[in-house]
Structures are given as structure tokens and as C-alpha cells.
Amino acid sequence: MLYFEDFLIGQARSAGAHELTTDDIVAFARQWDPQPWHVDPAAAERSPMRGLTASCCHTYSVAALLLSRMEPAAGIASLKHEIGLPNPARPGDRLTLTMTCVEKRISASRPDRGLITFDGVLANQDGVPVLTLRSLMMVKTRPVP
User: Fold this and answer.
1) Largest distance between two CA atoms of the chain
2) Distance between alpha carbon 124 and the CA centroid of its chain, in Å?
3) pTM for the whole thing?
4) 118: number of Cβ within 10 Å
């Protein structure tokens, strides 16, 4: 279990990889985001994306899955997520998540916890980012014996 004190500014942690398949992209999109460029390969070829792409919700879900595979933090709450989608995620992409601690401070009113800001990048096998993430988390401080 990682506590507030265990996270160092500039420290990066990675998890991966998860490969996207056509079947997974289409199945997710049929249920949650049934746009033609997510569910119909022929229509997707005619779209501005020029091919099938994963829904942004699907892409974020992959990031959440990979985050769950990292060493767990003594988290209290995720307070905020800001998401960017600089490039599409496509069938065959092998995605890896890297989260970097960029800021942290102890709570002024509750010294048993702190706030940590992480910058995340979900990138494909070529290092091209398909999702960027800034997350603010509330994390417990190490218990005093």
C-alpha cells in the first residue's frame, strides 16, 4: 500500500499493456457510444477518422483498468479528472499507462491526508498518446504507530 509520503514529485509509475481489438471496440460502442465510427468499420473508413476508433469512454476505461493494476494507493477519493484525447485509439493498439506525481500537499484541515496531482498518459505501442489525464487524489498519510 502506498501512502502520501511514498509519492515523490517527478516519480512515474507505469502499467500495461492492454491491446484493443476490433471486437472489443465495437462491443463497447454498441452498448455505450453507438456512433458509426465506433461500430461500423465501413462507415468509419468514410469518416474524418478514416477508420474504426475506440470511444473516448472506452479509452478512459482502459486507463482505469491499467491504473487498477498498479500498486494500490491508500486513496480516500478521486476528486477530479481532466481528460484530453490527442489521438484516436484504434484496433491493434497496445496501450500502456504512465502516471507521474506532479504536485502534493498535506491537507491544512486534516493532517491525516494529503492531496496529490498526477499527470497521466495512455500511449500506444509507438509512444503516441491517445489519452492524457490530470487527476487530483486524496490519499491517506502513513499511520503513526
Assistant:
1) 63
2) 12
3) 0.93
4) 23
